[in-house]
Amino acid sequence: MDHTALIFSSFEAAFAIVTIIIVQISWRYRDRVTGFPLLVTAVSAAAYAIASFIMPFVSDPLTWHLVNNIRYPLGALIATGSFFIAVEFTQNEQYKHPIVIGIFGFLVLLDATVALTDPIHRLMIADQFVTETGIYAAVLGPLFWVHVIVGLGIGSVSISILLSNLREARGVYRTQNVVLVVALGILAIFFAVQSVAAINDRFDLATVGIVGYCSLILWGLFRADLLKTVPVSRETLLKSMDDPVIALNENDVVVDLNAAAIELFSVDDTAIGSDVEAVFAEYPALKTRVGRVELEAETRDEITLSRNGVTQYYDLLVSPIVSRDTTSPTVNGTLGRIVVLRDITDRKQYETRIETHNRTLERLANVISHDLRSPMATAQNLVTILKLNIDEPNESAERSLSELEALIGDIEAFASHLPALARESTYVEHPTEFELAPIAAAAWRAVDTDGLSLLVADEITLSGDPRRLRQVLQNLFQNTAQHARPTATTVTIGHLADRDGFFIEDDGPGIGAAQDNEIFDYGMSTGDGTGIGLAIVRTIVEAHSWRISVTHSDRGGARFEIDTNPT
């Protein structure tokens, strides 16, 4: 072997070794986004470089033909792997459709079939001959040029995808994007030159492109965090979102953030690629809170952030980012997590005002209730003294004394119920979501409903105060038990058909039409009751910003309708 041949063979050997190193490195990153197609590309590139290295040493014509041709499907695999690296990096999920993957798989399989059966049909290598240096060379056939055109076409599409993404890339993403564009450009150029103007029969220029491509990928791994900070959340983050949003990968490195987050944390695009602790440096409470959340967990909490003497309240949501492509390998099933901060300062200040108002209202009710007890007790004592001092009161005087006693009793009842009315009228500050059925069952057990049965006809989910709603149902059940038996047999709860809300109805005698508008008034009773129960029902319903009305059921009984979204 002459010196020139030795030099070329040494280059081929060195290039093969470099590609093997790339395979070892890419294996460690195979579970990251773009890691799997990179592994496929690296393995194919290593096999291509090894085949190019051993070709000059093959003396059997058939073996040389097969070793030469095995490089063609390997080249197709390199082009395919590079395409899917570009697709995953830019998050063009539509190109990962099973049909697209199937088309690429078919092309590679077809390329391999044609290449390895070429000694029979001679459509890729039309002929082969021995050169003056004693090695084999090929006369290219028509399918070889089809192979080249398809391969370069795939490369061109990959570069176009990356260039389209480059316009919007920021921070470290721009560097990564440029690395991939340049690497693919080098790969395509050297493959094209080798195909149309090879410089030496002993040296394959395509291996230079492969090594250049793989070397840039290697540089990107260690200098631009190519697989550590891929833009996993670009489709998740909406540019128009007013709330600060920041996306982290599984290593808590910032991979994206929107304009609101940039303003809140006083950073710029260079924050992309930085550790989250650096971005949250001025907010240690936030750093601690986010750090406690496991990668695959979702949590919502309220957090107070103070800066420059100003206190702001935020609703903190930390959610895992899960790939929409279930076939794509990820670490622990997640790509990272999204941190969303929604400013709730106005709401918290409003709640504080409401709480202050509620405390004032309840305190005032207690004062009035307390202050009424003393004069009512005095009045009752005076009535008692009058009864004792009047030996034989006439009918008119006796009736007046009885009415006066009843009036005093009503005022005392009002005074005793006033704190409860004030308490239940306060706005529901922290509504929770709950199912109605178990609340209804608990209220039913608290009432003497002997002879009645309860039917919850629908699954109903509400947002409110379950304790207060239990009191509503308990009072309504008590009303039915007192006034609708023995005619009534069943109390039914179900969805309202024409609007948001639910109904409670019975099959009893119903209520008079004249009472419909007055039944919820304080002191209004259809029987021997105090008229307090339904007044509290309306008070609690309105504290939820709902509306209650009464009508007749299809079976003639009373039907209470609670509209949970009144207009």
Automatic annotation (TrEMBL):
The coiled-coil segments of this chain are: none
Q: Which reaction does it catalyse?
A: ATP + protein L-histidine = ADP + protein N-phospho-L-histidine
Query: SMART domains annotated for this entry?
Result: HATPase_c, HisKA
The Histidine kinase domain is annotated at 367-567
InterPro entries associated with the record: HATPase_C_sf, HATPase_dom, His_kinase_dom, HisK_dim/P_dom, HisK_dim/P_sf, HisKA_7TM, PAS-like_dom_sf, Sensor_HK_Regulatory
GO molecular function terms listed in the Swiss-Prot or TrEMBL record:
ATP binding; phosphorelay sensor kinase activity
Residue spans crossing the bilayer: 6-26, 38-58, 70-87, 99-117, 144-166, 178-199, 205-222
Q: Tell me which EC number(s) this protein carries.
A: 2.7.13.3
Protein's name according to its UniProt entry = histidine kinase
